[in-house]
Amino acid sequence: MKTLKLLVILALPFIAACVSNEKTPTPVVDENTIPAQPSGELIRTYVESNDFIDVDYKAIEYATINPTSSRAENVTEEDHAKMMAAVYRFQKHVSVIDGLYSCSLKNGAEINISEELFKSMIDNLEEMNSFIKEYTEKGEKVNVIEPTEEYLESLLK
Length: 157
Description:
Blueprint (H helix, E strand, L loop, with lengths): L5 H10 L24 H10 L7 H9 L11 H15 L2 E4 L2 E4 L11 H23 L11 H6 L3
């Protein structure tokens, strides 16, 4: 299976998939190692400006997973804000059809993001759908939640 992706991290609260009743412990995280989150105002600026977004999502992913790494220092608050703005733009076009996530976009140009970034988001959506199919086929209940205005607004905070 592919390595953990930043987009999966961003999408997990959105999915809110209830797969089983198993309890998993909440990890203990040192707050000093968490990368600075961009301000909602900065994210909103990128969303509303509709400026072209092309960020190194792999670097952002790495910085999110390994916040104390020296490579993480090269990822700025602006990079994180641009990534969140791109996710916001993308998620506005995601819906649930027959219990799976679907995106109405055909390319990144439609929302003014790079094709590489767009493809990574489409790939992530397909991975989530694979997860849903896998657990559904096992007879597990998966609660697939339609993106709401409340969810989209949460991306801007």
